[in-house]
Design a protein that fits this description.
With 330 residues, this protein is α/β, with parallel strands linked by helices. Helix content is 33%, strand content 24%. The chain contains eleven helices and 13 strands.
Length: 330
Amino acid sequence: MGINIIGTGMFVPDVIAGNEDFARIVDTSDEWITTRTGIKTRHITNGTLNFQMGAAAAKEAVEEAGIDPQEIDMIIATTVTPDCLTPSLACLVGKELGIESAAGMDLNAACAGYVFALDVAKHYLESGEFETILIVSSEIITRMVDYSDRSTCVLFGDGAGATIVRKGEGMYSCALKGKPQGADKIFTKLPAPNNPFGKNEFDWGNDEMNAAPDYFMQMAGNEVYKFATAAMPEAVEIAAQKAGIGVSEIDMIIPHQANVRIVNTAIKRLKLPKERFYVNIQEFGNISSACIPLALAQLSHQGRLHKGDKICLVGFGAGLTYGASIFEWE
Ligand code: UT7
């Protein structure tokens, strides 16, 4: 069974921060950011909450699909930056869409979230449990960015992407992977509990994690870079093998947008023409799990996806998680 993405949507806030804006707040330059990452601008929230961005993207996807939102029977939201610890982003988006009845849940696989969510959706569609699934990936990454840390703050932006997914008839394959031993390579800690009964001092079993401030993202950039350059081609190759096709048969690869140099390394390793990789990092920076569905929406709106095209999505991120899926556009 394949998957049929019948609608796509995206939303980005209208405040745009350019590299020169960062050069005014930390010791950096347009030249450094451009050559090391490929990023020129990123969109940053100006009071719009995560669920409001997600709902805006979801409404566009519903409209494109031409369905009534009441037809959605499951909502899977992917995020690492929810507005609330509870309820889920999925339920907040469902409320905003006026949906009366749908199962909602959040999935956190960091920047690989959409690839993981699509596979979960595929299995629920295949089982017959649900017929119309909204996957909404929305992130306010700037919520956990330390604007005094030049090595991370220049990388991230906010935004959302959404898709409406139904059963399809084409090919679908997926490889979901992870390296939990790298869980301390990218993390954002919440404050320890402060209850009146037990001990309120906690040991993470790791000096860096013990010392890190709450709420701010910490990243071992170089180590993640090395992981990502190997993980991306590996996941694509496994997904292609599972699909029974050669990598050269893929028409379009939509990679997670973390660093254009990571994409360029994958292009070399997979020996594919540059034009088969979609890159929009220059405009949006890294929006974690929203990167891939936002790119899907852009490509779909530009009429660049055609029936029968073999599309490959590949993501990687904190966890460490990674994964790729390949499916035919219907
Ligand atoms: O989506 C989640 C997954 N995340 C990723 O995939 C991120 C993967 N990592 C990366 O993309 C890269 O490692 C970074 C973009 C984060 C860093 O690029 P790099 O080429 O690996 O730089 P580096 O960390 O090796 O740092 C090189 C130099 C250092 O200075 P010294 O020690 O050589 O004097 C840094 O302090 O660049 C310095 N530096 C900066 N300089 C100007 C770090 N950030 C900046 C900056 N502006 N913004």
